[in-house]
Amino acid sequence: SRSSKSNTPSALGKTRRAVEFPEKNLNDLIWLGCKRKKAVTEFYDQEGQPTLASEYNINLMMAIVLMIGAGLRKSELFHLFVEDVLSPRRMVYLYHPERGVHRQYSGPNLTRQEYLMKEFGRVSRRRMTGNQQVGWKNLLITDAENERSQCYFLPKWETIFFRLFQEYRRLVLPDNMGHPYLFIS
Q1: Residue 5 and residue 3: Cα distance in Å, rounded?
Q2: CB of 86 within 8 A of CB of 132?
Q3: To which H or E segment does residue 94 belong?
Q4: Which of 22, 169, 173, 184 has the smallest count of CB within 10 Å of its CB?
């Protein structure tokens, strides 16, 4: 966690200690907390056997691993595009939600906001209202040209995340989505 030992201001102006999740409970959080009550048969493999995706909520597992293993904030998760995860190179980039550069396969590069509007008729989740709005704190941008920062994982969490991501891409993520976001319901 970013500041698990620090004091943080509360709404009343008093200082209180940030609550940290006990490290000894992380495996239970992932392997028991994300277990489905009932298997999802549409995620079974070609032989009709259960898979990781049929038995576990992989979306939730990936979110937890990104938060505990790469230090992402909850709000940052919801700005990730599927293509921000480069599986073969085992890299994850976090882009500024509007100014981040979206590299077109042909044509000029667009900002992420321009890309969302052009391809999906959408505004950034940062600019939405209601329950679709997602916050954004000023992340340290280490690649100014692309308005992004690479996410770095703690040992073991990178392997877990990319295993989950491969299963997610293979079995869960639908084709022809109406948006580019990694995390969907």
Answers
A1: 5
A2: no
A3: strand 91-95
A4: 22
- Helix-helix angle 58-70:157-167, to 10 degrees: 160
Residue 124 burial (CB count, 10 A): 21
Name the β-bridge partners of 103. none
d(CA 53, CA 171): 7
Residues contacting 160, CB < 8 A, separation 6+: 65, 69
Closest CA to 181 of 123, 129, 141: 123
Please, what sign has the CA dihedral across residues 103, 105, 110, 115?
negative
Residue with tokens 């489905």: 36
Query: Could you tell me the CA-to-CA distances from 110 to 73, 115, 122, 142, 151 in Å, in that order?
Result: 25, 6, 14, 19, 22
Output the tens digit of pLDDT for each of the chain's 185 residues.
444 444 555 556 677 787 788 888 988 999 999 999 999 999 999 999 999 999 999 999 999 999 999 999 888 998 899 999 998 889 999 998 888 888 776 678 889 999 999 988 888 888 887 887 787 888 888 888 888 999 999 988 999 999 999 999 998 888 778 889 898 75
The verdict on pTM exceeding 0.70 is yes
Query: How far lies 59's CA from each of 28, 40, 173, in Å?
Result: 16, 14, 10
